Backbone:
């Protein structure tokens, strides 16, 4: 089976249309249809269900899509490591809250300094990122600490971050004044639904004082949470990095919550521990995070990452000695 056919298959699955996928791939529609027919013939299964609106994956097609992504990732690893390729691909999985403080500037820096590196970024709330890790897709991840670590990844503590109560401009919250769980108990909240690590921390704190979480609305993205807070629907809880350079920053106030701290870990795919490309990405990430914290721009954050040995990183240090 040609890997090229799997790439074509995933593109059709992504677009839900052979004609749009063909346009994106710079192929004729008839040529792409022949390729998909050849793949179905080779596997002896129907991969797509066709109707007037386009194509959808069959059960067999959905299973192939999951396996194909992993297979193409492994092929990229072989091209980089066995083929002695200097630079290759790096796949990030990053929390939405770090989009402006870390993810966007990090990707821009890597692409500008190393244009031969191909970058893909997965972004989402923590449980979504953990799901991508279960499939082994990302190479380098920042996720909230979990007592159940993924067997596919090497994890190490990265930073500890204070959580903040966020309200609109009329809320009177102040960055230099802590609020307590008992104060939060009287507020209607706008947060993601379960399972969300910050939501669980808030509910746990409230249970300790025999109070219940008051729900105003469940919003599964940070931008939506902030927009609803600005509109006065309720309050939210998030790390300070979520407010970094956010366009709504001037329209909200925040206060640290006593006793509520989130620990982030860095997780590196065990299959990519010796990748020079991933090592470049990791060093850039660590440098950027350190700079943000040292400058005071990342309020309430403390870098807790420590190397496992004292050897100097000369650019060739395997990640197994970094993380």
Residues:
């Amino acid at each position: 089976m040609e890997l090229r056919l799997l790439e074509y298959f995933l593109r059709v699955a992504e677009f839900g249309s052979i004609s749009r996928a063909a346009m994106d791939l710079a192929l004729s529609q008839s040529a792409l249809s022949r390729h998909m027919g050849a793949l179905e013939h080779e596997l002896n299964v129907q991969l797509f269900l066709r109707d007037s609106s386009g194509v959808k994956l069959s059960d067999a097609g959905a299973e192939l899509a999951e396996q194909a992504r992993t297979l193409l990732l492994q092929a990229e690893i072989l091209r980089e490591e066995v083929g002695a390729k200097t630079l290759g691909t790096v796949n990030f999985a990053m929390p939405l809250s770090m989009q402006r403080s870390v993810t966007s500037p990090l990707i821009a820096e890597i692409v500008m300094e190393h244009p031969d590196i191909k970058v893909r970024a997965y972004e989402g709330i923590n449980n979504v990122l953990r799901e991508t890790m279960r499939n082994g897709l990302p190479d380098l991840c920042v996720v909230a600490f979990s007592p159940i670590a993924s067997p596919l990844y090497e994890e190490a503590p990265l930073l500890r971050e204070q959580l903040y109560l966020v309200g609109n401009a009329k809320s009177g919250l102040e960055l230099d004044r802590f609020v307590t769980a008992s104060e939060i108990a009287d507020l209607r909240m706008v947060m993601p639904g379960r399972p969300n690590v910050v939501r669980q921390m808030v509910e746990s704190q409230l249970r300790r004082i025999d109070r219940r979480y008051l729900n105003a609305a469940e919003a599964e993205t940070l931008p939506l949470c902030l927009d609803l807070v600005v509109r006065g629907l309720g309050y939210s809880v998030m790390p300070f990095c979520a407010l970094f350079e956010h366009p709504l920053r001037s329209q909200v106030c925040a206060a640290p919550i006593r006793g509520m701290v989130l620990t982030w870990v860095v997780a590196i795919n065990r299959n990519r521990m010796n990748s020079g490309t991933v090592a470049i990405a990791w060093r850039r990430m660590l440098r950027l995070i350190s700079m943000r914290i040292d400058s005071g721009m990342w309020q309430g954050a403390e870098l807790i990452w420590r190397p496992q040995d004292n050897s100097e990183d000369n650019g060739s240090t395997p990640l197994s000695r970094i993380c």
The radius of gyration is 23 Å. DSSP finds eleven helices and eleven strands in the chain. The domain at 85-158+263-290+304-322 is CATH 3.40.190.10 (D-Maltodextrin-Binding Protein; domain 2).
